[in-house]
């Protein structure tokens, strides 16, 4: 009797393949183990076993497997079920889900390149004979393929050897990111404890009586100490007090001050005994309501204004779940946000916190994977961006989804194009776990579910410490321009408010939702605007680099000195981005430190953290940035937030544009005035009477919701209709146009549903590929499964038409 297994391959294939095994293997293999299997010509892949059976495949002769790679399952049956749900709901191939769910270190294939690590020292670490052979080979040649390793070792079981070498840090895989963050050390000063006693102080002042400067310096130290109640960095001290380093040095020599050094991330991973806290009355009430709500609902929305202390409620809740032996998943929209949260959670929970996201090395990810699988004490709480959803939980009790409205929870490309919030809710259902969604500005769909009785709903309307919500002031820039009250892009009102905040020793955040110096350049003689030759967009001007760049494909040229159309030299920049604002600020406040935070300044693994650290340490006075600034960051010393131009957020061709503009503005505004000061927010706009601007000003979420949900209902959008967007791409314009029309016609004839398009999107060509989209709208409650099957069938027949075969179609369910 033959024996078979079903195996998912890490390729974009819709179904598992059947492989033959022998009886002994049949007794050993379990679902969730990996096997190395041949596929195609001479290629070996790491496949995942999803089933065992005795039915030979009908259409092909089952091949034999090469190797069994695991001793026990590394993926649970619940995970396999969840993958299946994702593939079917988001209409993608199971192979795509498998590939993106597993850390790539688990998916070695015969083509994966192995390279040696430069800083590995063989004299430090014991290697087995096999490991040494591989190491030795890598000293002679820069890279090896898995197959070659197999030849060197003369056996099939190469993966255990490779994995051990990875664990020993001797080799790395080609796809690994090798950047290293050098922890930043910061120099602080403090006064020795024994000097701080009352009876010593007068003696101290006497000792310093001959130097006015030294005395002032000590007085200033006391003031700062009283004001900030936190470690004083040397840099902050010299900058704010104007005391020179020479004076500090002589005080250190006298033993009045001492210097000490802290490593930023060293502090972060230590449990802090002072991290305990009590919930305020309002928080306690909300905490109890959430627990009560969990009795009735699987999912609950915690709608708490910015700075209301939602994180503290999550922490207390997590504590209860892990006390009961449960695992907790804490999802964040953005990897960049993890650092701050990890600091807060590790301070409280110590080593029970693990972090998992795609910027961690393979090594680190595999380690966390194993900890979660073993239900280890080291991984009770997992913090991560959306990929953490795919960890092998076995006793998941709670999923917290922070900033649940963020669109980055939705994966855009490649497939699976899943929404981590929605996929998490389904996952929680499989474990009978609870879900807490948190936001100050919930997504329309979420609020609809929460007020419609599908989710529980808990509100928190007071900032922690009863700090007042920021005062929001609108600045009508049309009027300001008319009265000539603008300097560059700064109104006199904004300018004065910045000066005032800075004079009080506060920091300022300025928001502009575009990067570069200006989004386009225009010839003032003939009106020509330089375009990207490969994409349908204008080129963005970068002044510092004196370049024009395409934001979609990276194409760039030196800034032209004359128009390429008419040779006129009268070229003008139009619109403005963060680089221009940064430059203007340097002119307006030359003595201040101005930094910029956008995609251009935060490249690299820790680019973002470096800026955040510097801002936290008050090395930056004014931070200019894009929407990156809007994401749940906490800075205690920011008293002013300025939005330079609210209008370009409002006019985007997207049914979510108004919702997003509202969320963005309220979130950026929320960065102002945390802890002890009331913040101020200045919004510059041409449309101070626009409903969204008014709703932001009044912090009136319900009004925003009511208006948007009315529109959504009228125009057949979520939450009333589900959307499925098909995107077609092809380099040949005519072929694409005809193909899109064919597909549109067949869909609308067969589906008996609203089908829109085929539409040319706002950017209708990227990297020389033309783009068309078709949108299908499904009324809520319709059998979505049947419709999806019908769509897949139509797509299959589309694919079978020879002249359209080369058109790439991607499917996006619930596009964001
Ligand atoms: P949110 O996430 O709702 O915007 P946070 O949870 O970050 O708000 O809280 C805002 C600030 O208030 C943080 O600096 C936090 O440390 C502080 N805070 C909130 N609740 C408490 C509490 N119960 N005890 C001490 N500090 C708190
Ligand atoms: Zn011209
Ligand atoms: Zn381009």
Model description:
By secondary structure, this protein is an alpha/beta fold. The chain folds into seven domains: 104 residues, GIY-YIG endonuclease (3-Layer(aba) Sandwich), CATH 3.40.1440; 61 residues; 81 residues; 162 residues, Rossmann fold, CATH 3.40.50.300; 176 residues, P-loop containing nucleotide triphosphate hydrolases (Rossmann fold, 3-Layer(aba) Sandwich), CATH 3.40.50.300; 58 residues, no CATH class; 93 residues, 2-Layer Sandwich (Alpha-Beta Plaits). Helix content is 36%, strand content 22%. The chain has a seven-stranded parallel sheet with strand order 15-16-14-17-18-13-19, sandwiched between helices. Strands 5-2-1-4-3-6 form a six-stranded mixed sheet. Bound molecules: adenosine-5'-diphosphate and zinc ion (2 copies). The site of one zinc ion has 8 residues, from loops. Keywords: ATP-binding, DNA replication, DNA-binding, Helicase, Hydrolase, Isomerase, Metal-binding, Nucleotide-binding, Primosome, Zinc. Its EC number is 5.6.2.4. Its cofactor is Zn(2+). It catalyses: ATP + H2O = ADP + phosphate + H(+); Couples ATP hydrolysis with the unwinding of duplex DNA by translocating in the 3'-5' direction.
Gist of the model:
The strands form nine sheets. The chain has a seven-stranded parallel sheet with strand order 15-16-14-17-18-13-19, sandwiched between helices.
Query: In the residues, how many domains can be counted?
Result: 7
Structural class comes to alpha/beta
Which sheet architecture does the biggest sheet show? 7 strands, parallel
Top CATH class of the largest domain = Alpha Beta
Per DSSP, the total helix count is 27
Fraction of residues in helices? Answer: 25-40%
Shape: globular
Ligands present: adenosine-5'-diphosphate, zinc ion
Task: Give me the CATH architecture of the largest domain, please.
Answer: 3-Layer(aba) Sandwich
**The CATH topology of the largest domain:** Rossmann fold
User: How many strand units?
Assistant: 37
Give the terminus-to-terminus CA distance: 51 Å
Low-pLDDT residue spans: 175-183, 264-268
Radius of gyration: 30 Å
CATH superfamily of the largest domain: P-loop containing nucleotide triphosphate hydrolases
Assembly status = single chain
Pfam family, one: PriA_3primeBD
Subunit structure: Component of the replication restart primosome.
Enzyme class: isomerase
Binding site for Zn(2+) 2: 532, 535, 550, 553
């Amino acid at each position: 009797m033959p024996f078979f297994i079903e195996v998912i391959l890490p390729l974009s294939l819709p179904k598992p393949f059947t492989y033959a095994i022998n009886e002994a293997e049949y007794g050993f293999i379990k679902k969730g183990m990996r096997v190395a299997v041949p596929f195609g010509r001479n290629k070996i892949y790491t496949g995942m076993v999803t089933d065992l059976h005795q039915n030979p495949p009908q259409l092909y002769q089952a091949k034999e497997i090469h190797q069994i790679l695991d001793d026990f399952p590394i993926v649970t049956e619940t995970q396999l079920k969840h993958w299946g749900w994702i593939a079917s709901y988001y209409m993608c191939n199971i192979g795509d889900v498998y590939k993106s769910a597993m850390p790539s270190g688990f998916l070695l294939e015969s083509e994966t390149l192995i390279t040696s690590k430069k800083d590995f020292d063989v004299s430090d670490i014991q290697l087995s004979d096999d490991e040494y052979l591989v190491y030795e080979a890598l000293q002679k040649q820069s890279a090896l393929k898995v197959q070659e390793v197999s030849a060197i070792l003369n056996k099939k079981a190469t993966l255990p050897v490779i994995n051990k070498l990875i664990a020993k840090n001797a080799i790395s895989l080609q796809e690994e990111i090798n950047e290293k963050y050098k922890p930043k050390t910061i120099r602080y000063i403090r006064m020795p404890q024994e000097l701080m006693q009352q009876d010593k102080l007068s003696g101290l002042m006497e000792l310093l009586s001959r130097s006015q400067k030294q005395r002032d310096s000590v007085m200033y130290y006391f003031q700062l100490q009283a004001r900030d109640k936190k470690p004083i960095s040397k840099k902050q001290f010299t900058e704010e007090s104007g005391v020179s380093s020479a004076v500090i040095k002589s005080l250190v020599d006298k033993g009045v001050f001492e210097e000490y050094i802290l490593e930023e991330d060293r502090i972060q991973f230590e449990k802090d005994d002072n991290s305990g806290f009590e919930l305020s009355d309002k928080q306690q009430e909300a905490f109890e309501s959430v627990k009560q709500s969990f009795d009735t609902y699987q999912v609950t929305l915690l709608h708490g204004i910015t700075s209301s202390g939602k994180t503290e409620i999550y922490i207390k809740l997590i504590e209860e779940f892990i006390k009961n032996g449960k695992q907790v998943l804490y999802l964040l929209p953005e990897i960049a946000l993890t650092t701050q949260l990890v600091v807060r959670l590790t301070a409280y929970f110590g080593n029970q916190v693990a972090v998992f996201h795609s910027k961690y090395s393979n090594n680190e990810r595999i380690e966390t994977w194993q900890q979660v699988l073993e239900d280890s004490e080291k991984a009770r709480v997992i913090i991560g961006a959306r990929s953490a959803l795919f960890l092998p939980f076995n006793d998941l009790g709670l999923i917290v989804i922070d900033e649940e409205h963020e669109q980055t929870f939705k994966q855009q490309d490649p497939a699976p194009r899943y929404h981590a919030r929605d996929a998490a809710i389904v996952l929680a259902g499989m474990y009978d776990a609870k879900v807490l969604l948190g936001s100050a500005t919930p997504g329309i769909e979420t609020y609809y579910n929460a007020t419609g009785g599908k989710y529980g709903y808990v509100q928190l309307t007071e900032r922690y410490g009863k700090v007042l919500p920021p005062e929001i002031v609108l600045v009508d820039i049309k009027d300001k321009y008319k009265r000539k009250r603008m300097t560059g892009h700064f109104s006199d009102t904004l300018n004065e408010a910045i000066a005032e905040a800075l004079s009080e020793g506060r920091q300022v955040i300025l928001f502009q939702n575009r990067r570069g110096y200006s989004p386009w350049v225009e010839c003032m003689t003939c009106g020509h605007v330089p375009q990207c030759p490969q994409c349908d967009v204008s080129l963005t001007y970068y002044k510092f680099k004196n370049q024009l760049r395409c934001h979609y494909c990276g194409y760039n040229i030196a800034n032209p000195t004359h128009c390429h159309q008419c040779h006129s030299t009268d070229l003008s920049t139009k619109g403005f981005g963060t680089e221009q604002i940064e430059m203007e600020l340097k002119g307006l406040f030359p003595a201040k430190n101005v930094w910029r935070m956008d995609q251009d300044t935060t490249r690299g693994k820790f680019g973002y953290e470096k800026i955040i650290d510097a801002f936290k340490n008050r090395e930056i006075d004014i931070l200019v940035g894009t929407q990156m600034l809007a994401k749940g960051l906490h800075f205690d010393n920011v008293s002013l937030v300025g939005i330079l131009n609210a209008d370009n957020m409002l006019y985007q061709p997207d049914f979510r544009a108004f919702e997003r503009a509202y969320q963005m503005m309220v979130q950026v505004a929320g960065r102002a005035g945390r802890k002890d000061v009331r913040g101020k927010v200045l919004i510059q706009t041409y449309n101070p009477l626009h409903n969204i601007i008014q709703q932001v000003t009044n912090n009136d979420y319900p009004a925003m919701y009511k208006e948007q949900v009315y529109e959504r209902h009228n125009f057949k959008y979520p939450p009333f209709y589900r959307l499925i967007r098909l995107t077609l791409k092809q380099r040949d314009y005519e072929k694409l146009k005809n193909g899109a029309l064919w597909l549109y016609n067949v869909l609308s004839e067969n589906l008996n549903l609203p089908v829109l398009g085929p539409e040319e999107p706002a950017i209708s060509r990227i990297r020389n590929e033309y783009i068309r989209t078709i949108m299908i709208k499904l009324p809520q409650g319709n059998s979505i499964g049947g419709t999806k099957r019908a769509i897949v069938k139509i797509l299959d027949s589309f694919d079978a038409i020879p002249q359209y075969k080369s058109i790439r179609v991607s499917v996006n369910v619930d596009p964001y």
